[in-house]
Every structure is written in structure tokens, then in C-alpha cells.
Amino acid sequence: MKSKEYIKGRGAQENVHNRFLQHIYETRADFLEFCRLEGEEADNNKTQYLPIFPKTIVNKVKSPDVGMAFSMNPYQGCEHGCIYCYARNTHEFWGYSAGLDFERKILIKKDAPRLLEAKLKSKSWQAQTIVLSGNTDCYQPAEKKYQITRACLEVFLKYRHPVGIITKNALVLRDLDILKKLAHDNLIGVNVSVTSLSEKTRRILEPRTVSIKKRLETIRMLSENNIPVNAMLAPIIPGINSHEVLKLAKAVSDNGALSFAFTVVRLNGAIGQIFTDWIQKTLPDKADKVLHQIAECHNGTLNDSRFGIRGRGEGKIATQIHDLVQLARRTYFKNKQFPPLNKELHATYKDGQLKLF
Q1: How many CB atoms lie within 10 A of CB 305?
Q2: Pairing state of beta strands 163-167 and 130-132?
């Protein structure tokens, strides 16, 4: 049974301490109870959109565990509220909590298209795939209003530059017109995240995301328009979705995905506390078992930062997951391959138009 204080429509159920701040405002349980008895609204649960003005937008990715060299994030924080999200920790750098703040205080980078164009026009820049987004979803609900991602895609198209997308939102189909033009020159690859085939699991694990049916339809629509899709079956969480590996792989393959990637869940930094609080409120009967199995994959701890191991896990449970993944690839992706993107056209279009010969 779920806790009485469970916050519907959110992943995190609390704001945890920001490790960079000495002073923190805490919403105490007795205050929430007082508000309930007095009929007052303690928390309106609304999302805030806050503009910020960074000087640069393209980030070099230094981690050897991430399959990208450069990323850019039009938004910081993510209203999707996925409880396991590794990006939660980055919200602390902005002075916010990795918990509810991450889902309710969304930082908006309206200058992203201009900053991107300046980067692509730079004489020193050599084309490398830039991924939207390496941190938070570029098609989260804020994109419907601000359309920053669409504007960035128009810049990539203008300069014939390769771009990758990572999303779990069907809103990506809104930009099918631009994606098809990029795909014509092999400049686009889309990664669609699918973590479960169970709507019950999806609702509590990723509360403000589109349905699984919509995600599979998104993969199919992109594929039918010759836009290559890689499915992100990530993270695999022992005791929650680890039993679905084969079914997930079949479902995304049947809908046209050319490949899939996965990670074994890890709960670094504040995420360990956030996830533990969440699972004790949403799945109390399974909480201890799931937390124990996650720890078994990471040398007895929820918190694993070791390069080369942190995303793969180790031990018997992780080995079982890897075995299922290999079987899924042999069975459902035997003759499929995700194509490399075109890096050759950008130099020709660096000035925004075809150079004269």
C-alpha cells in the first residue's frame, strides 16, 4: 500500500539535502500534517520554468562509459520525474535539490540555438556528433512551449551537421519534417528510451512520460520514415524490469529499432536516498529485495562510480542480465545495424551555404 504522503505525478517524494549548500529549507512532516488538518495547501506541486543564460551550450563528454563525445542540453532538470535518473545530481550545481526540485524547477536555455550556431561556425570546430540531450530529455513537456530543441535541429540542418537525440517522449514526432531532411543526408540518429512494457511500472517509475504504447509507436513512425532508431532499454533494475529484457528487445525490434543499448541501474550521490524513499512508498513489499539486488550488482553498495563497471554492474545478477542481453541481440537483432552518421558535409556548409568551387 502506498504511503499517505505519496505525491502523485512525481517521481521523487522529497527534496534531499544539497551537498553544496550549508543551509537548506526542509518541509517537515509535522508541517504537512498541520496543513492537512487546517485545510491549507502545503505544496501546489506546480512546475516552474526558470530562464538561465549560459555562455556555451556544447559540452565535451569525458566519461568513457558514455557513447557520445559531445552533448547539449536545452533544459536542466526534467519534468518527466524518472526516479532513477543520473542527471538528478547535476541539479545540485545550480543550487537546487536532486529530489523534487529536479522535477519542478526546470531551467530554460533560450539562447541555445544562437550558441549552437556560433559553435558550428567556429573555424576550429570539426564535425562530431552532438547529442540532444546527454543529461535531461530535450523533448520533456517544456519543449512543447519553448520549442528550443526544434530551433536547434534547424541549426543542425542549416549547417549539415550530425546530431543524435535521446528521448522518451512522442513529441519528437512533431519535428518529423526536419528529421526526414536530416535523415536524407544521414545526419540524424534517434535513441528512444523504453524501460518497461508494463504501464503500472511506467507510471510509478517515470510518472510524467508518455505511455509505452506511444513510445513503441514513435519507434515505428521514425523507422517508417527512414530515421534510424536505437532503443535505450535503460536502466535495467533488478526486481523491477530485469525480467523484461527479452520482451523489451522483441518489442522495439518488431517496431523497427536497429539496435538497443542498456545499463544496469546505479544510484550515485543523492539518487540512492531519493530512490530508497521512493521504493519504500511505492513498492514497500519489494523494497528490501530490490535494494539488496541493486547493491549486489555494485560491490555491496548502491553508490558506484567506477569507470568501466558502474554502468555494467558485476556479480551473479549483473551476469544474468548480460546473458539475457546477448541472447536478445542474437535473437532479435541478428541482421540489424545502426549506421554511423555523416561527418563530411559540415565543412562544406560551414558558412551556412554551399561553398563555391
Answers
A1: 10
A2: parallel
Q: Report the candidate in 142, 152, 200, 202 with the shortest Cα–Cα distance to residue 175.
A: 152
pLDDT top residue among 133 and 140 = 140
Question: What is the grid cell recorded at 139?
Answer: 523533448
Question: Which tens digits make up the pLDDT trace of 260-307?
Answer: 999 999 999 999 999 999 999 999 999 999 999 999 999 999 988 878
Neighbours of 323 (CB within 10 A): 11
Q: How many helices (H) and strands (E) does the chain have?
A: 12, 10
Query: Does 167 score more than 60 pLDDT?
Result: yes
Q: Which three cell numbers stand for residue 311?
A: 554502468
Give the mean model confidence (pLDDT) for residues 83-99.
93
Classify the C-alpha dihedral 237-243-246-252 as positive or negative: negative
Paired strand residues for 262: 233
Residue 352 has pLDDT above 90, yes or no: no
Sheet architecture: strand order including 75-76: 48-51, 105-108, 75-76
Residues ≥6 apart with Cβ < 8 Å to 8? 207
C-beta of residue 165 within 8 angstroms of C-beta of residue 138? yes
Q: Which sign does the torsion angle of CA 118, 119, 121, 123 carry?
A: positive
Instruction: Calculate ∠ Cα 263-258-240, nearest 5°.
Output: 30
Peptide bond into 238 cis (omega under 30): no
CA distance 322 to 309: 13
Cis upstream peptide for 133 (omega within 30°): yes
How far apart CA 334 and CA 156 sit, in angstroms, is 32
What's this model's pTM, rounded to 2 decimal places? 0.87
Which three-class secondary structure state does DSSP give residue 131? strand
Strands (E), 194-340: 229-236, 259-264
- Separation between Cα atoms, residue 107 and residue 86, nearest integer Å: 17
Q: What is the largest CA-CA distance in the chain?
A: 77
Q: Given this model, what pLDDT does residue 32 score?
A: 41
Element (H, E) at 38: helix 29-38
- List b or e across 90-124, with b for residues whose CB sees 16 or more CB atoms inside 10 angstroms: bbbebebbbbbbbbbbbbbbebbbebbbebbeeee
Contact 207, 10 (CB under 8 A): yes
